[in-house]
Structure of Transducin beta like 2:
Amino acid sequence: MELPQMPELMGLSLLLGLLALVATAAVARGWLRAEEETSGRSAGQKANGCPPDKSLKSKKQKLQQRIRKEKPQQHNFTHRLLAAALKSHSGNITCMDFSSNGKYLATCADDRTVRIWSTKDFLQREHRSMRANVELDHAILVRFSPDCRAFIVWLANGDTLRVFKMMKRDDGGYTFTATPEDFPKKHKAPIVNIGIADTGKFIMTASSDTTVLIWNLKGQVLSTINTNHMNNTYAAISPCSRFVASCGFTPDVKVWEVCFGKKGDFQEVVRAFELKGHSAAVHFFAFSNDSRRMASVSKDGTWKLWDTDVEYKKQQDPYLLRTGRFEEASTVPCRLALSPDAQVLALASGSSIHLYNTRRGEKEESFEQVHGECISDLSFDITGGFWHPVGTEQCGSSTTRLATGQWWRNAGPPGRASSSTRQRLQQQLAQAQEALKNLGP
């Protein structure tokens, strides 16, 4: 066999080398295409919500950990009438109550604490509070006793009342001690409100079925009221401690008198009167400080102011004084608060609050987006100097929730209520001075 000549051998070598280069280029091109497809799939999976590969998942976890370490952005609200924002709770605030002497405010939250605030600090930069721990449960409702030496809470998991005694320390603070036993469990439906009569003679609890219970201070049920509302949305004790009222699915507010004998012994609960005039379910109602006025708000889109200083035993019905429009009430549940002198009506729907002048029925002020979530409670203090909405606010993820209670200096209606209050006090002072003159020789 003849060997190929040298030029032919060199040509063959060159041909083989060229084929090798072409093959290498093809392999490299295929590898690059595969890398691009892999990257495209990873990006597509991330965009479509599919789980990425392990390396990307690890990076995402590190990013989430870094975000969790950063402080979440809180819901902010500013207004010329805002006096203070109280922020010591670490959970959702569910209820609050001013003490009868106007010195303290109690707030409860699902962080298993009740906070007691001094109202004299509301206009200060720092707002101090005293903490009472709710062991093995958390409170959803709180009410001060009339003498401000105790408060009661409704337990979320225990579905019953617990009493806390307040003992003053030498340094001016308080220690809080729960009584050895909670009240017996009697309600079969979720609770809507609790209250203590200012006379200290009884406690009221109301549930969302049709049940209102009257208790003595030892935890014994004195009377059971069937409201016949189909369901209760709210119930309360009047400031004068004579009456218990409730509202619900029916278009009226029903009022009962809790009767005691001259020696303080319980006698009976009797129907007193009704507020009739709404055409749909009543969301909420409130008493004025002297119990001579009541206000109500209904799903029919109206609020009403009533004169309840009547002789109901002589079949006298309450007088309707004013009707105002509040369209939000026709679509969402609302809360209501009436100032102590019944001159200002505060209505809360969602996370916003609206102030009405009850003499003219006109809206005077609105506070939009007060909280990040719906307002859960609304009230004036006993002097009318502050009124207080409580709301829940979500910050960060669904597991990190902060609650804030915010107070407004009551200029409301701005420039009017303060002057009318001043005129009323001046008139009372003049009457008192005239009475003192008549007592002289």
